[in-house]
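Lab notebook, bench 4. Still working through the backlog of constructs that have no structural model yet. Next entry is a single chain of 149 residues. Request: give me the structure tokens for it.
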Amino acid sequence: MSKDPNAIFADFVARKKLKMTPQRRRILEVFLSEEGHVTSEELYQKVKREYDSIGQATVYRTLKLLADSGLAKAVEFGDGAMRYEILYGQSHHDHLICESCGVNVEVVDPAIERLQEEVARRHGFRLTAHKLYLYGICPDCQKKASGKG
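Model written out:
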């Protein structure tokens, strides 16, 4: 049976010779309760409601630790904001991103995954990881642009 995220993070922090503080534990809990993608600022605002004395730098550093531990992944959708998504217990997915409103849709498509593997093989690569971001205009923004929404 695999470890739960709290144990994984506590072990990782200990290996880094750091302490598993109540603040780090709460940041982890709030992060794991998030749906989708969150910036350090958004997470800071949520954690600050409970820990008024917590600093933004603590949240940022903890998010970096979460990413380094393999529980989170940093993603950047082209708007300059670094976001984090839960990696623990999640299957691989790609992203559709609206260039107008910024909406982000996670997609899983086995055909795309097979094609990426095939392209890598054709070029002699063994894939170790990949990110696929597809940019366009979402249906809502298309309607607004055409005056039908």
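Notes after review: The mean pLDDT is 85. Strands lie at 38-39, 72-76, 82-86, 94-98, 104-107, 133-136. Flag for follow-up if needed.
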